[in-house]
Amino acid sequence: MTGALYAEDTGEGERALVLLHGFAGSHRSWDAVRSALPPGLRIVAYDLPGHARSLDLPGAGKARVGAQAVVDDLAGRGIERYHMAGHSFGGAVCVLAADLAPQSVASLALIAPGGFGPEMAGELMSARAQAQTDAEIAAAMQGMFGPHARVPPDTIAAAIALDCAPGQREKLIEISAMIVRDGQQGVFPRIMLEALAMPVHIAWGTQDAVLPFHQANGLPERFAVRPLQGCGHMLPEEAPAEVARFITGSLCHA
After folding, report:
1. Is 52 left (phi over 0), alpha (psi -120 to 50) or beta?
2. FRET pair for 45, CA 20 to 30 Å: which of 18, 52, 108, 146?
3. Which pTM was predicted?
4. Domain 6-119+185-252 maps to which CATH number in 3.40.30.10, 3.40.50.1820, 3.40.50.300, 3.40.109.10?
5. d(CA 46, CA 72)
6. Exposed/middle/buried for 8, CB within 10 Å: 0-12, 13-18, 19+?
7. Longest dimension (CA), the chain
8. Residue 33's closest CA among 228, 199, 245, 206?
9. Could you state, in order of their start, the residue ranges of all structural domains in the chain?
């Protein structure tokens, strides 16, 4: 573990796609999605501050700190223009990155993004953060999936492996307390969302138990919203093929 922002940077395509995971995830959260994306993309998948190989990075749990870190790292890699896809907390980081560097962000593909409404199931996040045994981690993950979905064994194994890192569980508890306060999360000002000039596409599970689907209602008219019927919150792991098609479509319309 280091104090540097970690990214898995693969591919040599002319178009760059940035992937940002949600709470208690890592760049590995996108593995199944990435395998279904079209060839010809340079993909930069990050571990956000406080997670996995970016565990020790300062500012963990603060979306704007994460956004600035990602924007700065991309500039350091010489990537001047890029598309962004983010899940949950990572979706909120994407919005803030677009606010910080609007000239660099070509499009946004937001997957059950944070910051679009005050309601958030803090008890589910807390259960995931505080889980200590393999069975508790599996149960916490299941609570975030759709009611008819089964958590893939690889997803459970990745969550268990993440928690094995010294200090990771304590950091997740700290981050969850920052994201959710009194059962609510922070909300983006409407004026900020309306100011996003790049194409914005949103995918949301209709059975999301963490961030309710109705937060996708009433957004700026030019935002393209795609409901994923019967799906829960953990869309990159629960419905990777659908998420890959969603991201691919957002690239085609950018």
Report:
1. left
2. 146
3. 0.97
4. 3.40.50.1820
5. 13
6. middle
7. 45
8. 245
9. 6-119+185-252
Q: How far apart are CA 101 and CA 95, in angstroms?
A: 10
Average pLDDT, integer, range 25-44? 96
Taking only the tens place, the pLDDT of each residue in 152-192 is 999 999 999 999 999 999 999 999 999 998 889 999 999 99
Distance CA 97, CA 58 (A): 17
Distance separating alpha carbons of residues 137 and 169, to the nearest angstrom: 11
Write the pLDDT tens digit of every residue in 124-156.
999 999 999 999 999 999 999 999 999 999 999
Best CA proximity match to 93, nearest among 51, 154, 56? 51
Report residue 238 CA to chain centroid gap. 14
In the structure, what pLDDT confidence band is assigned to residue 3 with cuts at 50, 70 and 90? low
Q: Strand, helix or coil at 136?
A: helix
**Directed axis angle between helix 134-144 and helix 122-130, to 10°?**
160
What's the CA gap between 85 and 64, in Å, rounded? 16
pLDDT higher than 60, residue 2: no
CB 96 within 8 A of CB 114: no
